[in-house]
Each structure stands twice: as structure tokens, then as C-alpha cells.
Amino acid sequence: MQPRALVTGASSGLGAEFALQLAADGLSLVLVARDAERLEELAAELRAARGVEVEVLAADLTEAEGLQRVADRLADAARPIDILVNNAGFAVAEPFHASAVDDERRMHELLSWVPLRLAHAALPGMRARGRGGILNVASLAGRLPSGTYAAAKAHVITLSRALHARYRGEGVTVTALLPGFVPTEFHERMGVAPTSVPRQGWADASTVVREGLRALRRRRGLVVSDWRYRIAAPLIPLVPDRIAAGFGLGGRTS
């Protein structure tokens, strides 16, 4: 039986790239996102190009019913999930004092609660089988005081570290992937043009995904991607908060 991965936010951006690279490695896939049409297009492409089994699960993870369906799929012992990629996300463009509180709630649920809920659903089966991997797409923003998006990503980093420390000895790896800026649809969906970041500051999506999957295979609990951001990461604690707060959103996915 082919190993199987479930990827959230799989319709575009880093999620689609995760699907492409996992299929290239021979894994069967469960693709999760709201846009069923885009998921079906990607699934057909992967089946034709890679000959892997691809299941489409259209769901809005900010809705209780959609989240429960994905959690149930993860807990299905008859069709086990070997790798969970928690990738779905969005950000609120407005500053905190001007943002809609319902938008803030949805963002924090998707970025913080959903990875926790889905990891909670996946872990029992992984522990019973003595193997498994959970890759949480966090952000280098989670180490910066740059808004509520950063606060949510800080939660993802801490959650990943805690779960990795607790379950690594039982064969389950939990890895936090910390990208910087990545050219996907993320900023476009926010309605923000990312013109303030020089082209040299953008990381390649395929590199970010490859480094994340490699860290998971090597059972690492955390990886900063790519080399430019690995150089910058140790300097972040030295930057005063009033300056670091202006760095804005660290790269995200669709």
C-alpha cells in the first residue's frame, strides 16, 4: 500500500507544491481546500503525471462541519494517513485597531486551532502504527512582534515543538516549517501588493517545500527556509520590537 499524505490548503501556493512533491515521491494524496474545482484539476494532473491515488476532500476548515469531516478522515484506521501537512491559512490585512474582529477570529482559528485539531485527530493512529509525520507550515513571522498573524504563527511553532518533544520517541515526527516571503497568491488574496519586499527577498516555493519535507524525513522539529532567512533568523532577537514590528508578514501560503 502506498503511503498517504493529507495536505490542507492544497488548491494553490505552497499547498499545491506540497502535493506535487509528495506525489513525485510516490505518496497517495488527500487534498483539502475550499475550492473543489481547483482541487479536482490538480488531482487529475497528479493522477496523469504520477499515477498516484488522489482523493479530493473539499472543506472549509473555519466551519465546524468541514473541520470535523477532515478530522474524521485523519482518524480513519482503514485508510491511514502517514503524513499530515497543515498548510491552510490567510491573514488579515488591516491593522489590529481597524480590523474586523470576526476576521481576526477566523484567522486565528485557521492558523492556530485547525492545526491543533487535525494533529489531535491524526496522532492516535500514528502512535498505534509507530510511525507518522506532521508538518506544520508556520512562518518566520512567528518570531516577530508583527501583528496578530505573527501571534498565531508563534502558537504553531510552540505547538509543533511540544508535540515533537512528546511523541518523537513513539515514532511520530512533528516539524514546524518557517518560511520567509514566498511568491504565492497569499498577498493577492489579502488585497495587499507586496511591493515593499525586494525581489531578492523572496524564496522559491519549491525550495521551501523541499526543505520542509527533507526536515520531516530527517525527524527535525523545526526548519527555517531558505538560506537567506536562515542567516537572518539568529539576528531577530537582537532587533528592537519597534523596528521588528515593521517587517510585516513573513512569507505564507495560499
From TrEMBL:
<keyword id="KW-0560">Oxidoreductase</keyword>
<dbReference type="Pfam" id="PF00106">
    <property type="entry name" value="adh_short"/>
</dbReference>
<dbReference type="GO" id="GO:0016491">
    <property type="term" value="F:oxidoreductase activity"/>
</dbReference>
<protein>
    <submittedName>
        <fullName>Dehydrogenase</fullName>
    </submittedName>
</protein>
<dbReference type="GO" id="GO:0016020">
    <property type="term" value="C:membrane"/>
</dbReference>
<dbReference type="InterPro" id="IPR002347">
    <property type="entry name" value="SDR_fam"/>
</dbReference>
<dbReference type="InterPro" id="IPR036291">
    <property type="entry name" value="NAD(P)-bd_dom_sf"/>
</dbReference>
<comment type="similarity">
    <text>Belongs to the short-chain dehydrogenases/reductases (SDR) family.</text>
</comment>
